[in-house]
């Protein structure tokens, strides 16, 4: 009794994918494949088409009929690994026969009945390759023969000097009006009656215009430019005047400022004596109370 691997039921997305693959299986193509395989191998497949191919024996006989010697040893055993070996030898043989790798099914897809649609597609691809090689196959398509073209080396070298249509065309092209590499190309409008620029010092319309420009009021590079309001009756400022943009120094005083780098003492009447009386009753300086340091 032949035993096979048991795969559990599929759920969710796996079940949905499996159902979609099963719907693509074509019974009409199965009948065509059955007739072709039985007429080629001389063996009957019975009522269950895929179950008859599951052990790989008929598949190996099929490829040996199409290309003798493809599979040297066919295992007639009912053991699982022997049947998987037959299927593996079949897929390797049809690859050498000319079937594309992306058209070939995996061994478990046939052995575990998980993707019989791919198995059917592989057999149809094998029939098409066999038909292209001259075998009598009543269905399928015949692949076109490869048309190889060989050109002489002289022709290949001549093609390097031709600009292909994919690169556009150089017809009607002209370098008229082009300037030297790296220099500007001046644009002017003939409707305005302007003359064509003759030197590189001319500013074109693309760069704006310098008409009406003046350097009046400009200061030396690095110095400030004073801003004043004429409506307020202000006079021109000099570099010594602090403008309104910088604030004002009116009412400012340096009273109470210490020497640069020294701390500034903060007086509090609760803790310090009167800051105006720095001498004691005896006329000596009292060191018992000092100002608290702000630090």
UniProtKB/TrEMBL annotation:
<dbReference type="InterPro" id="IPR001715">
    <property type="entry name" value="CH_dom"/>
</dbReference>
<keyword id="KW-0009">Actin-binding</keyword>
<dbReference type="GO" id="GO:0015629">
    <property type="term" value="C:actin cytoskeleton"/>
</dbReference>
<dbReference type="InterPro" id="IPR050606">
    <property type="entry name" value="Calponin-like"/>
</dbReference>
<keyword id="KW-0112">Calmodulin-binding</keyword>
<feature type="domain" description="Calponin-homology (CH)">
    <location>
        <begin position="27"/>
        <end position="131"/>
    </location>
</feature>
<dbReference type="GO" id="GO:0005516">
    <property type="term" value="F:calmodulin binding"/>
</dbReference>
<keyword id="KW-0597">Phosphoprotein</keyword>
<dbReference type="GO" id="GO:0031032">
    <property type="term" value="P:actomyosin structure organization"/>
</dbReference>
<dbReference type="GO" id="GO:0051015">
    <property type="term" value="F:actin filament binding"/>
</dbReference>
<protein>
    <recommendedName>
        <fullName>Calponin</fullName>
    </recommendedName>
</protein>
<dbReference type="InterPro" id="IPR003096">
    <property type="entry name" value="SM22_calponin"/>
</dbReference>
<dbReference type="InterPro" id="IPR036872">
    <property type="entry name" value="CH_dom_sf"/>
</dbReference>
<dbReference type="Pfam" id="PF00402">
    <property type="entry name" value="Calponin"/>
</dbReference>
<feature type="region of interest" description="Disordered">
    <location>
        <begin position="272"/>
        <end position="295"/>
    </location>
</feature>
<comment type="similarity">
    <text>Belongs to the calponin family.</text>
</comment>
<dbReference type="Pfam" id="PF00307">
    <property type="entry name" value="CH"/>
</dbReference>
<comment type="function">
    <text>Thin filament-associated protein that is implicated in the regulation and modulation of smooth muscle contraction. It is capable of binding to actin, calmodulin and tropomyosin. The interaction of calponin with actin inhibits the actomyosin Mg-ATPase activity.</text>
</comment>
<dbReference type="InterPro" id="IPR000557">
    <property type="entry name" value="Calponin_repeat"/>
</dbReference>
<keyword id="KW-0677">Repeat</keyword>
<dbReference type="GO" id="GO:0007015">
    <property type="term" value="P:actin filament organization"/>
</dbReference>
<dbReference type="InterPro" id="IPR001997">
    <property type="entry name" value="Calponin/LIMCH1"/>
</dbReference>
